[in-house]
Specification:
Structural class: alpha+beta
Strand content: 25-35%
Radius of gyration: 14 Å
Helix content: 10-25%
Number of helices: 3
Amino acid sequence: MAGEISFFELGVGDFERARTFYSGLFGWTFDAGATDGGGYVIRTPNVPGGVHGGDPGAGAYLFFRVDDMTAAIARVRELGGTVDDIDVGGDEETVARFGRFQLCHDDQGSPFGLHEPPAGG
C-alpha cells in the first residue's frame, strides 16, 4: 500500500561488522550480494532491508512505498521537496530484483526515500 515503509537501508563503515552486530542484536538473517560494491540483503520479520559499507556514521535510510516512481517524484517537487541526483536505482537486474529507489528531502530538508517495488512484488 502506498505510503507504508517498504524498505530500509543501513549505511555503515564495514558491512561485515554490521552483519555480526545486527544478527546478534535482533536475530536478522543476511543474504550476500545485495549490491555491486558488496553488502547484504537483510531479512527481518516485517520489512526487508539492506546494508552497504563505505558510509560510516550514516543514519538509516527509510523508503516509503509508491506505486509510480515518476509520479511520486513529480509530486515531491510540486510540494516543495527536492529529489537527490544520486542514482540509487542500480542496473536492470537490480531493479528487477529490488525495485526502484530514490532519495528525497521534504520541504523542510528532512531526508526520506521512495521505493517502487518490482513488478509482482
